[in-house]
From TrEMBL:
Organism placement in taxonomy: Eukaryota, Metazoa, Chordata, Craniata, Vertebrata
InterPro entries found in the cross-reference section: SHKBP1/KCTD3, SKP1/BTB/POZ_sf, T1-type_BTB, WD40/YVTN_repeat-like_dom_sf, WD40_repeat_dom_sf, WD40_rpt
Name of the protein described by the UniProt record: SH3KBP1 binding protein 1
Domain Potassium channel tetramerisation-type BTB positions: 10-56
Pfam families: BTB_2
Gene3D superfamilies from the UniProt entry: Potassium Channel Kv1.1, Chain A (3.30.710.10), YVTN repeat-like/Quinoprotein amine dehydrogenase (2.130.10.10)
Ranges for region Disordered: 108-141
Bias-annotated ranges (Basic and acidic residues): 131-141
Biological process annotations from GO: protein homooligomerization
Transmembrane segments: none
Protein backbone atom coordinates (compact mmCIF):
# COMPACT_ATOMS: atom_id res chain seq x y z
CA UNK A 1 0.00 0.00 0.00
CA UNK A 2 3.00 2.34 -0.25
CA UNK A 3 1.60 3.65 -3.56
CA UNK A 4 -1.35 5.89 -2.62
CA UNK A 5 -4.63 5.79 -4.55
CA UNK A 6 -3.74 2.55 -6.32
CA UNK A 7 -5.95 -0.48 -6.87
CA UNK A 8 -4.70 -2.07 -3.65
CA UNK A 9 -5.77 0.85 -1.47
CA UNK A 10 -9.40 0.18 -2.44
CA UNK A 11 -9.78 -3.55 -3.10
CA UNK A 12 -8.68 -6.93 -1.83
CA UNK A 13 -10.32 -9.08 -4.55
CA UNK A 14 -8.19 -9.48 -7.68
CA UNK A 15 -9.34 -11.26 -10.85
CA UNK A 16 -6.29 -10.90 -13.12
CA UNK A 17 -3.62 -13.06 -14.76
CA UNK A 18 -1.56 -14.64 -11.94
CA UNK A 19 1.59 -15.01 -14.06
CA UNK A 20 1.66 -11.26 -14.68
CA UNK A 21 0.82 -10.51 -11.07
CA UNK A 22 4.03 -12.13 -9.76
CA UNK A 23 6.49 -9.42 -10.94
CA UNK A 24 4.03 -6.72 -9.86
CA UNK A 25 3.83 -8.16 -6.36
CA UNK A 26 7.62 -8.44 -6.29
CA UNK A 27 7.93 -4.77 -7.29
CA UNK A 28 5.55 -3.68 -4.52
CA UNK A 29 7.55 -5.70 -1.98
CA UNK A 30 11.11 -4.83 -3.05
CA UNK A 31 10.77 -1.95 -5.52
CA UNK A 32 12.84 -4.05 -7.94
CA UNK A 33 11.86 -4.80 -11.53
CA UNK A 34 12.84 -7.90 -13.51
CA UNK A 35 10.65 -7.87 -16.64
CA UNK A 36 12.90 -9.90 -18.93
CA UNK A 37 10.95 -13.10 -18.38
CA UNK A 38 7.71 -11.40 -19.48
CA UNK A 39 6.73 -9.05 -22.26
CA UNK A 40 7.10 -5.39 -21.35
CA UNK A 41 3.88 -4.45 -23.15
CA UNK A 42 1.82 -7.04 -21.25
CA UNK A 43 3.31 -6.00 -17.94
CA UNK A 44 2.76 -2.33 -18.76
CA UNK A 45 -0.89 -3.06 -19.50
CA UNK A 46 -1.32 -4.67 -16.07
CA UNK A 47 0.57 -1.89 -14.27
CA UNK A 48 -1.72 0.70 -15.88
CA UNK A 49 -4.77 -1.30 -14.77
CA UNK A 50 -3.54 -1.41 -11.16
CA UNK A 51 -2.61 2.28 -11.29
CA UNK A 52 0.97 1.75 -10.11
CA UNK A 53 2.51 4.92 -11.54
CA UNK A 54 6.16 4.24 -10.58
CA UNK A 55 6.03 0.85 -12.28
CA UNK A 56 4.33 2.31 -15.36
CA UNK A 57 7.12 4.87 -15.73
CA UNK A 58 9.85 2.24 -15.36
CA UNK A 59 8.21 -0.02 -17.94
CA UNK A 60 7.72 2.88 -20.36
CA UNK A 61 11.43 3.63 -20.06
CA UNK A 62 12.26 -0.01 -20.79
CA UNK A 63 10.02 0.12 -23.86
CA UNK A 64 11.61 3.36 -25.09
CA UNK A 65 15.09 1.81 -24.95
CA UNK A 66 14.13 -0.22 -28.04
CA UNK A 67 12.97 2.88 -29.90
CA UNK A 68 14.91 5.76 -31.38
CA UNK A 69 13.93 8.94 -33.16
CA UNK A 70 16.72 8.04 -35.59
CA UNK A 71 15.22 4.61 -36.31
CA UNK A 72 17.01 1.31 -36.76
CA UNK A 73 19.63 0.36 -39.31
CA UNK A 74 17.02 0.29 -42.08
CA UNK A 75 15.84 3.88 -41.49
CA UNK A 76 17.07 5.91 -44.45
CA UNK A 77 15.52 9.37 -44.25
CA UNK A 78 12.76 11.67 -43.05
CA UNK A 79 10.85 14.32 -45.01
CA UNK A 80 8.91 16.73 -42.76
CA UNK A 81 5.35 17.81 -43.55
CA UNK A 82 5.25 20.38 -46.38
CA UNK A 83 3.93 23.91 -46.21
CA UNK A 84 0.22 24.13 -47.03
CA UNK A 85 -0.02 25.70 -50.53
CA UNK A 86 -2.26 28.48 -51.80
CA UNK A 87 -5.62 27.73 -53.37
CA UNK A 88 -5.73 26.92 -57.09
CA UNK A 89 -7.27 29.49 -59.40
CA UNK A 90 -10.18 28.32 -61.55
CA UNK A 91 -9.04 27.54 -65.05
CA UNK A 92 -10.27 25.72 -68.11
CA UNK A 93 -11.44 22.13 -68.14
CA UNK A 94 -11.16 19.79 -71.09
CA UNK A 95 -13.81 17.24 -72.01
CA UNK A 96 -12.72 15.25 -75.03
CA UNK A 97 -11.04 17.81 -77.24
CA UNK A 98 -13.35 20.66 -76.23
CA UNK A 99 -12.47 23.34 -73.67
CA UNK A 100 -15.20 24.08 -71.13
CA UNK A 101 -15.41 26.18 -67.99
CA UNK A 102 -14.32 24.61 -64.71
CA UNK A 103 -17.42 26.24 -63.19
CA UNK A 104 -19.73 24.19 -65.39
CA UNK A 105 -22.53 22.28 -63.60
CA UNK A 106 -21.44 18.92 -62.21
CA UNK A 107 -22.23 15.69 -63.99
CA UNK A 108 -25.89 14.85 -63.35
CA UNK A 109 -25.17 11.19 -62.77
CA UNK A 110 -23.79 10.77 -59.26
CA UNK A 111 -20.64 8.65 -59.04
CA UNK A 112 -18.60 7.13 -56.29
CA UNK A 113 -14.87 6.75 -55.98
CA UNK A 114 -13.46 3.26 -56.35
CA UNK A 115 -10.53 2.30 -54.17
CA UNK A 116 -9.52 -0.87 -55.94
CA UNK A 117 -6.74 0.44 -58.17
CA UNK A 118 -3.19 0.89 -56.87
CA UNK A 119 -1.23 3.90 -58.15
CA UNK A 120 1.67 1.74 -59.30
CA UNK A 121 2.05 -2.01 -58.84
CA UNK A 122 4.17 -2.71 -61.84
CA UNK A 123 1.15 -1.56 -63.86
CA UNK A 124 -1.02 -4.41 -62.56
CA UNK A 125 -4.38 -3.96 -60.85
CA UNK A 126 -8.04 -4.82 -60.50
CA UNK A 127 -11.09 -2.67 -61.20
CA UNK A 128 -14.44 -3.06 -59.48
CA UNK A 129 -17.71 -1.11 -59.82
CA UNK A 130 -18.94 0.89 -56.88
CA UNK A 131 -22.28 2.36 -55.89
CA UNK A 132 -23.39 5.98 -56.35
CA UNK A 133 -22.03 8.78 -54.20
CA UNK A 134 -21.71 12.54 -54.56
CA UNK A 135 -18.38 14.21 -55.34
CA UNK A 136 -16.22 14.17 -52.19
CA UNK A 137 -15.84 17.78 -51.11
CA UNK A 138 -13.14 18.27 -48.48
CA UNK A 139 -14.62 18.31 -45.01
CA UNK A 140 -13.73 17.77 -41.40
CA UNK A 141 -14.11 14.00 -41.90
CA UNK A 142 -10.85 13.98 -43.87
CA UNK A 143 -7.57 14.86 -42.20
CA UNK A 144 -5.96 17.26 -44.68
CA UNK A 145 -2.52 16.80 -43.13
CA UNK A 146 -2.09 13.06 -43.53
CA UNK A 147 -0.39 11.44 -46.51
CA UNK A 148 -2.85 9.63 -48.77
CA UNK A 149 -0.81 8.19 -51.66
CA UNK A 150 2.87 7.84 -52.59
CA UNK A 151 4.11 6.80 -56.03
CA UNK A 152 7.59 6.77 -57.54
CA UNK A 153 9.27 6.96 -60.93
CA UNK A 154 13.06 6.79 -61.40
CA UNK A 155 14.58 9.12 -58.75
CA UNK A 156 11.35 10.97 -58.06
CA UNK A 157 8.38 10.42 -55.78
CA UNK A 158 4.97 12.12 -55.78
CA UNK A 159 3.19 12.48 -52.45
CA UNK A 160 -0.54 13.16 -52.48
CA UNK A 161 -2.27 14.83 -49.55
CA UNK A 162 -6.00 15.51 -49.35
CA UNK A 163 -5.95 18.57 -51.62
CA UNK A 164 -2.45 18.94 -53.08
CA UNK A 165 0.51 16.92 -54.34
CA UNK A 166 4.24 17.39 -53.71
CA UNK A 167 7.06 16.00 -55.88
CA UNK A 168 10.53 15.20 -54.52
CA UNK A 169 13.77 14.33 -56.32
CA UNK A 170 16.87 12.66 -54.86
CA UNK A 171 20.50 13.25 -55.76
CA UNK A 172 23.41 11.48 -54.17
CA UNK A 173 25.14 14.70 -53.15
CA UNK A 174 22.15 16.70 -51.90
CA UNK A 175 19.61 14.06 -50.87
CA UNK A 176 15.85 14.52 -51.25
CA UNK A 177 14.62 17.95 -52.29
CA UNK A 178 11.18 19.40 -53.04
CA UNK A 179 10.86 20.21 -56.73
CA UNK A 180 7.14 20.91 -57.14
CA UNK A 181 4.11 21.65 -55.00
CA UNK A 182 0.72 21.90 -56.64
CA UNK A 183 -1.86 24.53 -55.73
CA UNK A 184 -4.50 23.56 -53.18
CA UNK A 185 -7.49 21.98 -54.91
CA UNK A 186 -11.16 22.17 -54.02
CA UNK A 187 -11.70 18.41 -53.94
CA UNK A 188 -10.18 15.27 -52.50
CA UNK A 189 -7.38 13.52 -54.41
CA UNK A 190 -8.10 9.85 -55.19
CA UNK A 191 -5.35 8.94 -57.65
CA UNK A 192 -1.89 10.21 -58.55
CA UNK A 193 0.50 9.42 -61.41
CA UNK A 194 4.09 10.52 -61.99
CA UNK A 195 6.28 10.61 -65.09
CA UNK A 196 9.82 11.74 -64.28
CA UNK A 197 11.68 10.36 -67.29
CA UNK A 198 10.82 9.05 -70.75
CA UNK A 199 13.28 6.47 -72.05
CA UNK A 200 14.79 7.36 -75.41
CA UNK A 201 12.82 10.57 -75.84
CA UNK A 202 13.34 14.31 -75.64
CA UNK A 203 10.02 15.94 -74.82
CA UNK A 204 11.22 19.26 -73.50
CA UNK A 205 8.44 20.87 -71.48
CA UNK A 206 6.56 17.56 -71.07
CA UNK A 207 9.53 15.47 -69.97
CA UNK A 208 8.33 15.47 -66.33
CA UNK A 209 4.66 15.45 -65.43
CA UNK A 210 2.40 14.71 -62.49
CA UNK A 211 -1.35 14.14 -62.55
CA UNK A 212 -4.06 13.73 -59.91
CA UNK A 213 -7.65 12.59 -60.19
CA UNK A 214 -10.83 12.90 -58.16
CA UNK A 215 -13.95 11.06 -59.27
CA UNK A 216 -14.28 12.02 -62.95
CA UNK A 217 -11.76 14.85 -63.32
CA UNK A 218 -8.00 14.82 -63.87
CA UNK A 219 -5.54 17.70 -63.50
CA UNK A 220 -2.19 17.42 -65.28
CA UNK A 221 0.91 19.56 -64.62
CA UNK A 222 4.27 19.73 -66.35
CA UNK A 223 7.25 20.26 -64.05
CA UNK A 224 9.82 22.77 -65.23
CA UNK A 225 13.60 22.40 -64.71
CA UNK A 226 13.56 25.25 -62.17
CA UNK A 227 11.01 23.37 -60.05
CA UNK A 228 7.95 25.37 -60.99
CA UNK A 229 4.95 23.71 -62.59
CA UNK A 230 2.55 24.65 -65.35
CA UNK A 231 -0.99 23.35 -65.45
CA UNK A 232 -1.49 21.58 -68.77
CA UNK A 233 -5.22 21.17 -68.34
CA UNK A 234 -8.20 19.63 -66.58
CA UNK A 235 -9.63 16.60 -68.34
CA UNK A 236 -12.90 14.80 -67.72
CA UNK A 237 -13.43 11.06 -68.11
CA UNK A 238 -17.15 11.60 -67.32
CA UNK A 239 -17.10 8.39 -65.24
CA UNK A 240 -15.10 7.49 -62.09
CA UNK A 241 -11.33 7.40 -62.65
CA UNK A 242 -10.12 4.15 -61.10
CA UNK A 243 -6.65 3.87 -62.64
CA UNK A 244 -4.29 6.71 -63.52
CA UNK A 245 -0.84 6.03 -64.98
CA UNK A 246 1.60 6.92 -67.73
CA UNK A 247 2.69 4.86 -70.73
CA UNK A 248 5.76 6.76 -71.86
CA UNK A 249 4.60 10.36 -71.95
CA UNK A 250 0.95 9.49 -72.55
CA UNK A 251 -1.40 9.87 -69.57
CA UNK A 252 -3.93 7.03 -69.32
CA UNK A 253 -7.12 6.93 -67.23
CA UNK A 254 -9.47 3.94 -67.07
CA UNK A 255 -12.75 3.08 -65.37
CA UNK A 256 -14.59 -0.17 -64.67
CA UNK A 257 -17.46 1.20 -66.74
CA UNK A 258 -15.40 0.50 -69.86
CA UNK A 259 -14.02 3.93 -70.62
CA UNK A 260 -10.39 4.74 -71.43
CA UNK A 261 -9.04 8.29 -71.56
CA UNK A 262 -5.73 9.22 -73.22
CA UNK A 263 -3.78 12.48 -73.25
CA UNK A 264 -1.10 12.55 -75.96
CA UNK A 265 1.91 14.73 -75.18
CA UNK A 266 2.73 15.13 -78.88
CA UNK A 267 -0.71 16.14 -80.16
CA UNK A 268 -1.77 17.65 -76.79
CA UNK A 269 -5.12 16.02 -77.40
CA UNK A 270 -7.40 14.34 -74.84
CA UNK A 271 -9.81 11.68 -76.01
CA UNK A 272 -12.25 9.25 -74.38
CA UNK A 273 -12.99 5.81 -75.79
CA UNK A 274 -15.70 3.37 -74.68
CA UNK A 275 -14.81 -0.33 -74.58
CA UNK A 276 -16.21 -3.41 -72.83
CA UNK A 277 -16.52 -2.94 -69.00
CA UNK A 278 -12.99 -3.26 -67.61
CA UNK A 279 -12.11 -5.37 -64.55
CA UNK A 280 -8.26 -5.34 -64.71
CA UNK A 281 -5.34 -3.99 -66.72
CA UNK A 282 -1.60 -4.25 -67.31
CA UNK A 283 0.94 -2.74 -69.71
CA UNK A 284 3.59 -4.29 -71.93
CA UNK A 285 5.95 -1.90 -73.68
CA UNK A 286 3.65 0.52 -75.46
CA UNK A 287 0.61 -1.77 -75.26
CA UNK A 288 -2.28 -1.41 -72.85
CA UNK A 289 -3.80 -4.80 -71.99
CA UNK A 290 -7.38 -4.85 -70.64
CA UNK A 291 -9.17 -7.68 -68.86
CA UNK A 292 -12.93 -7.35 -69.19
CA UNK A 293 -16.17 -8.60 -67.67
CA UNK A 294 -17.01 -10.76 -70.71
CA UNK A 295 -13.95 -12.97 -70.21
CA UNK A 296 -11.98 -11.35 -73.01
CA UNK A 297 -8.51 -9.81 -72.97
CA UNK A 298 -8.14 -6.81 -75.29
CA UNK A 299 -5.13 -4.76 -76.26
CA UNK A 300 -4.75 -1.20 -77.48
CA UNK A 301 -1.70 -0.65 -79.66
CA UNK A 302 -0.12 -1.27 -83.04
CA UNK A 303 0.75 -4.96 -82.99
CA UNK A 304 0.81 -7.53 -80.24
CA UNK A 305 4.00 -9.01 -81.71
CA UNK A 306 6.22 -6.36 -80.14
CA UNK A 307 9.68 -5.62 -81.46
CA UNK A 308 11.70 -3.89 -78.81
CA UNK A 309 13.66 -1.94 -81.40
CA UNK A 310 10.43 -0.53 -82.86
CA UNK A 311 8.40 0.35 -79.77
CA UNK A 312 6.33 3.39 -80.61
CA UNK A 313 4.37 5.83 -78.54
CA UNK A 314 0.91 5.01 -77.21
CA UNK A 315 -1.66 5.18 -78.76
CA UNK A 316 -0.09 3.63 -81.83
CA UNK A 317 -2.99 3.55 -84.24
CA UNK A 318 -6.17 5.49 -84.62
CA UNK A 319 -9.28 4.34 -86.44
CA UNK A 320 -11.86 6.99 -87.26
CA UNK A 321 -10.35 9.12 -84.46
CA UNK A 322 -10.86 6.25 -81.98
CA UNK A 323 -8.39 3.96 -80.25
CA UNK A 324 -7.93 0.67 -82.05
CA UNK A 325 -9.08 -2.00 -79.58
CA UNK A 326 -8.39 -5.61 -80.56
CA UNK A 327 -9.50 -8.81 -78.84
CA UNK A 328 -6.46 -10.89 -77.98
CA UNK A 329 -7.89 -13.87 -76.12
CA UNK A 330 -11.11 -15.11 -74.51
CA UNK A 331 -11.31 -17.24 -71.37
CA UNK A 332 -12.74 -20.72 -72.04
CA UNK A 333 -15.45 -20.26 -69.38
CA UNK A 334 -15.90 -16.52 -70.15
CA UNK A 335 -15.44 -15.54 -66.50
CA UNK A 336 -14.54 -11.91 -65.82
CA UNK A 337 -10.78 -11.27 -66.00
CA UNK A 338 -10.17 -9.75 -62.56
CA UNK A 339 -6.34 -9.66 -62.56
CA UNK A 340 -3.67 -9.44 -65.28
CA UNK A 341 0.13 -9.73 -65.44
CA UNK A 342 2.10 -9.52 -68.69
CA UNK A 343 5.72 -10.72 -68.85
CA UNK A 344 8.00 -9.91 -71.79
CA UNK A 345 10.86 -12.38 -71.93
CA UNK A 346 14.30 -10.76 -72.26
CA UNK A 347 15.26 -13.06 -75.13
CA UNK A 348 14.31 -11.53 -78.49
CA UNK A 349 14.46 -12.61 -82.09
CA UNK A 350 14.07 -10.86 -85.43
CA UNK A 351 10.35 -11.63 -85.40
CA UNK A 352 9.63 -10.33 -81.92
CA UNK A 353 9.29 -11.40 -78.29
CA UNK A 354 7.86 -14.38 -76.51
CA UNK A 355 5.02 -12.82 -74.50
CA UNK A 356 3.47 -14.50 -71.44
CA UNK A 357 0.24 -13.46 -69.73
CA UNK A 358 -1.03 -14.73 -66.39
CA UNK A 359 -4.58 -13.84 -65.45
CA UNK A 360 -7.12 -14.56 -62.73
CA UNK A 361 -10.89 -14.74 -62.99
CA UNK A 362 -13.95 -13.99 -60.89
CA UNK A 363 -14.36 -17.73 -60.18
CA UNK A 364 -10.84 -18.00 -58.72
CA UNK A 365 -9.18 -19.69 -61.69
CA UNK A 366 -5.58 -18.80 -62.57
CA UNK A 367 -4.42 -19.32 -66.16
CA UNK A 368 -1.22 -18.72 -68.13
CA UNK A 369 -1.26 -18.04 -71.87
CA UNK A 370 1.76 -17.58 -74.18
CA UNK A 371 2.34 -15.96 -77.55
CA UNK A 372 5.08 -17.45 -79.77
CA UNK A 373 6.81 -15.01 -82.13
CA UNK A 374 6.52 -17.58 -84.90
CA UNK A 375 2.75 -18.04 -84.41
CA UNK A 376 1.61 -14.45 -84.05
CA UNK A 377 -1.27 -15.00 -86.46
CA UNK A 378 -2.91 -17.67 -84.33
CA UNK A 379 -2.93 -15.63 -81.12
CA UNK A 380 -1.88 -16.67 -77.60
CA UNK A 381 -2.27 -20.31 -76.61
CA UNK A 382 -3.53 -21.59 -73.24
CA UNK A 383 -0.50 -22.94 -71.39
CA UNK A 384 -1.57 -23.84 -67.85
CA UNK A 385 -4.59 -23.67 -65.53
CA UNK A 386 -4.74 -23.65 -61.71
CA UNK A 387 -8.00 -23.98 -59.75
CA UNK A 388 -6.73 -23.39 -56.22
CA UNK A 389 -8.79 -20.30 -55.28
CA UNK A 390 -12.47 -20.29 -54.43
CA UNK A 391 -12.81 -16.50 -54.37
CA UNK A 392 -12.17 -13.94 -57.13
CA UNK A 393 -8.48 -13.39 -57.90
CA UNK A 394 -7.62 -9.80 -56.97
CA UNK A 395 -3.91 -9.68 -57.88
CA UNK A 396 -1.56 -11.72 -59.99
CA UNK A 397 2.13 -11.41 -60.81
CA UNK A 398 4.20 -13.41 -63.30
CA UNK A 399 7.90 -12.80 -62.81
CA UNK A 400 11.11 -14.46 -63.89
CA UNK A 401 11.04 -17.08 -61.14
CA UNK A 402 7.53 -17.08 -59.67
CA UNK A 403 3.82 -16.98 -60.37
CA UNK A 404 1.96 -15.28 -57.52
CA UNK A 405 -1.81 -14.98 -57.14
CA UNK A 406 -3.94 -13.34 -54.45
CA UNK A 407 -7.67 -13.92 -53.95
CA UNK A 408 -10.37 -12.05 -52.06
CA UNK A 409 -10.38 -14.50 -49.13
CA UNK A 410 -8.44 -12.31 -46.66
CA UNK A 411 -5.65 -11.86 -49.22
CA UNK A 412 -4.96 -15.56 -49.60
CA UNK A 413 -1.75 -16.04 -51.61
CA UNK A 414 -0.72 -19.04 -53.70
CA UNK A 415 2.71 -19.17 -55.32
CA UNK A 416 4.41 -21.41 -57.85
CA UNK A 417 8.00 -21.75 -59.03
CA UNK A 418 8.31 -20.97 -62.74
CA UNK A 419 10.74 -23.11 -64.73
CA UNK A 420 12.36 -21.40 -67.71
CA UNK A 421 14.56 -22.42 -70.62
CA UNK A 422 16.57 -19.65 -72.27
CA UNK A 423 14.36 -17.11 -70.58
CA UNK A 424 11.08 -18.59 -71.82
CA UNK A 425 8.59 -20.50 -69.69
CA UNK A 426 9.17 -24.23 -69.93
CA UNK A 427 6.56 -26.87 -70.64
CA UNK A 428 8.43 -29.43 -68.52
CA UNK A 429 8.08 -29.72 -65.59
CA UNK A 430 6.02 -26.52 -65.59
CA UNK A 431 5.07 -24.55 -62.49
CA UNK A 432 5.78 -26.27 -59.18
CA UNK A 433 3.55 -25.40 -56.16
CA UNK A 434 5.59 -23.48 -53.64
CA UNK A 435 3.49 -22.24 -50.71
CA UNK A 436 0.17 -20.88 -49.49
CA UNK A 437 -0.32 -18.10 -46.94
CA UNK A 438 -2.41 -15.01 -46.13
CA UNK A 439 -1.57 -11.31 -45.89
CA UNK A 440 -4.00 -10.36 -43.14
CA UNK A 441 -5.03 -6.70 -43.38
CA UNK A 442 -7.84 -4.97 -41.53
CA UNK A 443 -8.26 -1.83 -43.62
CA UNK A 444 -10.99 0.70 -42.93
CA UNK A 445 -10.96 2.11 -46.47
CA UNK A 446 -11.08 5.88 -46.85
CA UNK A 447 -11.31 6.81 -43.20
CA UNK A 448 -8.64 8.24 -40.95
CA UNK A 449 -6.23 5.60 -42.16
CA UNK A 450 -5.83 7.28 -45.54
CA UNK A 451 -6.78 6.33 -49.07
CA UNK A 452 -6.80 2.60 -49.77
CA UNK A 453 -5.17 3.30 -53.15
CA UNK A 454 -2.05 4.01 -51.08
CA UNK A 455 -2.17 0.86 -48.94
CA UNK A 456 -2.07 -1.92 -51.54
CA UNK A 457 -0.16 -4.98 -50.30
CA UNK A 458 1.76 -5.52 -53.55
CA UNK A 459 3.67 -7.48 -54.70
CA UNK A 460 6.29 -4.77 -55.21
CA UNK A 461 9.63 -4.98 -57.01
CA UNK A 462 11.23 -5.69 -60.36
CA UNK A 463 10.09 -8.90 -62.05
CA UNK A 464 13.61 -10.26 -62.35
CA UNK A 465 14.21 -9.92 -58.60
CA UNK A 466 12.64 -11.05 -55.32
CA UNK A 467 9.35 -9.23 -54.81
CA UNK A 468 7.75 -8.34 -51.49
CA UNK A 469 4.37 -7.80 -49.89
CA UNK A 470 3.85 -4.90 -47.48
CA UNK A 471 1.46 -5.72 -44.63
CA UNK A 472 -0.32 -3.14 -42.50
CA UNK A 473 -2.48 -5.26 -40.22
CA UNK A 474 -4.67 -2.55 -38.68
CA UNK A 475 -5.35 1.03 -39.83
CA UNK A 476 -4.09 2.90 -36.76
CA UNK A 477 -0.62 1.39 -36.41
CA UNK A 478 2.97 2.55 -36.62
CA UNK A 479 4.23 -0.85 -37.87
CA UNK A 480 4.65 -2.42 -41.30
CA UNK A 481 5.71 -5.99 -42.03
CA UNK A 482 7.76 -6.72 -45.16
CA UNK A 483 7.29 -10.28 -46.44
CA UNK A 484 8.66 -12.20 -49.39
CA UNK A 485 5.96 -12.65 -52.01
CA UNK A 486 7.32 -16.07 -52.97
CA UNK A 487 6.90 -17.78 -49.58
CA UNK A 488 5.43 -15.26 -47.12
CA UNK A 489 8.51 -15.23 -44.88
CA UNK A 490 9.23 -12.05 -42.98
CA UNK A 491 12.07 -9.92 -44.31
CA UNK A 492 11.82 -7.21 -41.66
CA UNK A 493 9.44 -4.95 -39.81
CA UNK A 494 9.61 -1.18 -39.72
CA UNK A 495 8.25 1.09 -37.02
CA UNK A 496 7.56 4.80 -37.29
CA UNK A 497 10.41 6.78 -35.77
CA UNK A 498 8.05 9.42 -34.38
CA UNK A 499 5.26 7.09 -33.25
CA UNK A 500 2.73 8.43 -35.77
CA UNK A 501 0.29 6.16 -37.60
CA UNK A 502 1.26 4.93 -41.06
CA UNK A 503 -1.44 5.99 -43.54
CA UNK A 504 0.06 4.81 -46.85
CA UNK A 505 3.16 3.20 -48.32
CA UNK A 506 4.89 2.10 -51.50
CA UNK A 507 8.09 0.36 -52.57
CA UNK A 508 10.25 2.01 -55.24
CA UNK A 509 13.69 1.39 -56.68
CA UNK A 510 15.83 4.49 -57.15
CA UNK A 511 18.63 4.58 -59.68
CA UNK A 512 22.22 4.41 -58.55
CA UNK A 513 24.74 7.18 -59.06
CA UNK A 514 26.98 7.58 -62.10
CA UNK A 515 29.94 6.11 -60.25
CA UNK A 516 31.32 2.78 -61.47
CA UNK A 517 29.84 -0.12 -59.55
CA UNK A 518 26.89 1.86 -58.26
CA UNK A 519 23.56 0.06 -58.46
CA UNK A 520 19.91 0.86 -57.89
CA UNK A 521 18.55 0.51 -54.37
CA UNK A 522 15.09 -0.46 -53.23
CA UNK A 523 13.29 1.69 -50.67
CA UNK A 524 10.08 1.48 -48.69
CA UNK A 525 8.36 4.87 -48.41
CA UNK A 526 5.80 5.28 -45.64
CA UNK A 527 3.42 8.22 -45.34
CA UNK A 528 2.17 9.25 -41.92
CA UNK A 529 -0.77 10.91 -40.21
CA UNK A 530 1.31 14.00 -39.37
CA UNK A 531 2.19 14.53 -43.04
CA UNK A 532 5.77 13.25 -42.90
CA UNK A 533 7.47 10.75 -45.20
CA UNK A 534 9.82 8.13 -43.76
CA UNK A 535 12.17 6.03 -45.90
CA UNK A 536 13.51 2.53 -45.26
CA UNK A 537 16.34 0.69 -47.00
CA UNK A 538 14.88 -2.58 -48.29
CA UNK A 539 18.04 -3.48 -50.20
CA UNK A 540 19.90 -3.76 -46.90
CA UNK A 541 16.95 -5.60 -45.35
CA UNK A 542 16.96 -8.18 -48.15
CA UNK A 543 20.72 -8.66 -47.85
CA UNK A 544 20.50 -9.17 -44.09
CA UNK A 545 17.60 -11.60 -44.49
CA UNK A 546 19.63 -13.58 -47.03
CA UNK A 547 22.49 -14.06 -44.58
CA UNK A 548 20.42 -15.19 -41.60
CA UNK A 549 17.39 -17.40 -41.11
CA UNK A 550 14.33 -15.36 -42.02
CA UNK A 551 11.66 -15.36 -39.32
CA UNK A 552 8.42 -17.24 -39.90
CA UNK A 553 5.24 -15.90 -41.38
CA UNK A 554 4.22 -12.66 -39.76
CA UNK A 555 2.78 -11.29 -37.66
CA UNK A 556 2.79 -13.93 -34.92
CA UNK A 557 -0.33 -14.53 -32.85
CA UNK A 558 1.11 -12.45 -29.99
CA UNK A 559 1.94 -9.57 -32.35
CA UNK A 560 -1.49 -9.80 -33.92
CA UNK A 561 -3.15 -9.50 -30.51
CA UNK A 562 -1.06 -6.45 -29.74
CA UNK A 563 -2.02 -4.79 -33.03
CA UNK A 564 -5.69 -5.64 -32.58
CA UNK A 565 -5.60 -4.16 -29.11
CA UNK A 566 -4.26 -0.91 -30.59
CA UNK A 567 -7.09 -0.86 -33.12
CA UNK A 568 -9.63 -1.47 -30.37
CA UNK A 569 -8.25 1.46 -28.37
CA UNK A 570 -8.48 3.63 -31.47
CA UNK A 571 -12.18 2.85 -31.72
CA UNK A 572 -12.83 3.81 -28.11
CA UNK A 573 -11.24 7.22 -28.75
CA UNK A 574 -13.91 8.05 -31.30
CA UNK A 575 -17.12 6.40 -30.06
CA UNK A 576 -19.46 6.99 -32.96
CA UNK A 577 -21.92 4.87 -34.90
CA UNK A 578 -20.49 5.51 -38.36
CA UNK A 579 -20.48 2.62 -40.84
CA UNK A 580 -16.66 2.70 -40.82
CA UNK A 581 -16.48 2.02 -37.09
CA UNK A 582 -19.18 -0.65 -37.26
CA UNK A 583 -17.40 -2.45 -40.08
CA UNK A 584 -14.09 -2.24 -38.29
CA UNK A 585 -15.67 -3.58 -35.08
CA UNK A 586 -17.25 -6.50 -36.92
CA UNK A 587 -13.90 -7.37 -38.51
CA UNK A 588 -12.21 -7.14 -35.11
CA UNK A 589 -14.69 -9.68 -33.69
CA UNK A 590 -13.94 -12.00 -36.59
CA UNK A 591 -10.18 -11.69 -36.13
CA UNK A 592 -10.28 -12.10 -32.35
CA UNK A 593 -12.35 -15.26 -32.84
CA UNK A 594 -9.74 -16.62 -35.23
CA UNK A 595 -6.91 -15.86 -32.83
CA UNK A 596 -8.90 -17.44 -29.97
CA UNK A 597 -9.04 -20.79 -31.74
CA UNK A 598 -5.42 -20.53 -32.87
CA UNK A 599 -4.42 -20.11 -29.23
CA UNK A 600 -6.54 -23.08 -28.18
CA UNK A 601 -5.13 -25.28 -30.93
CA UNK A 602 -1.52 -24.42 -30.17
CA UNK A 603 -1.93 -24.31 -26.36
CA UNK A 604 0.00 -21.05 -26.24
CA UNK A 605 0.68 -19.05 -23.10
CA UNK A 606 -1.58 -16.18 -24.15
CA UNK A 607 -4.34 -15.48 -21.64
CA UNK A 608 -7.57 -16.98 -23.03
CA UNK A 609 -9.73 -14.89 -20.70
CA UNK A 610 -8.14 -11.72 -22.08
CA UNK A 611 -9.19 -12.61 -25.63
CA UNK A 612 -12.64 -13.66 -24.43
CA UNK A 613 -13.14 -10.34 -22.68
CA UNK A 614 -12.20 -8.50 -25.87
CA UNK A 615 -14.77 -10.49 -27.82
CA UNK A 616 -17.49 -9.73 -25.28
CA UNK A 617 -16.75 -6.01 -25.36
CA UNK A 618 -16.76 -5.91 -29.16
CA UNK A 619 -19.93 -7.97 -29.46
Amino acid sequence: TWVPDSFFSRSIFIDRDPSLFAPILNFLRTKELQPRSLGVQQLLHEAEFYGITPLVRKLQLCDELDRSSCGNVLFNGYLPPPVYPLKRRNRHSVAGSQFVSSRAPPVERAVRRSNTMPPNLGHAGILSPRGPEERPAPSQSHDHGLVRIICGHHNWIAVAYAQFVVCYRVKESTGWQTVFTSPRLEWLIDRVALNAKVMGGALGEHDKMVAVASVTEIILWSICPDGNGNEIGVFSLNVPVEALFFIGNQLIATSHTGRVGVWNAVTKHWQNQDVVPISSYDTAGSLLILGCNNGAIYYIGKDFNIKQSHVQKFPLRMKDNDLLVTELYRDPTEDAITALSVYLTPKTSDSGNWIEIAYGTSSGTVRVIVQHPETVGSGPQLFQTFSVHRSPVTKIMLSEKHLISVCADNNHVRTWTVTRFRGMISTQPGSTPLTSFKILSLDEGEGHGGCSAGTEIGPYGERDDQQVFIQRVVPDTDKLYVRLSSNGKRVCEVRSVDGTSITCFTVHECEGSSRIGSRARRYLFSGHANGSIQMWDLTTAMEIAGKVDIRGKSPTEEELLELLDQCDLALTRTPDSTPRASTCRYSLCHLYTRVYFIVLRRTMTVNISYISSKLLVLL
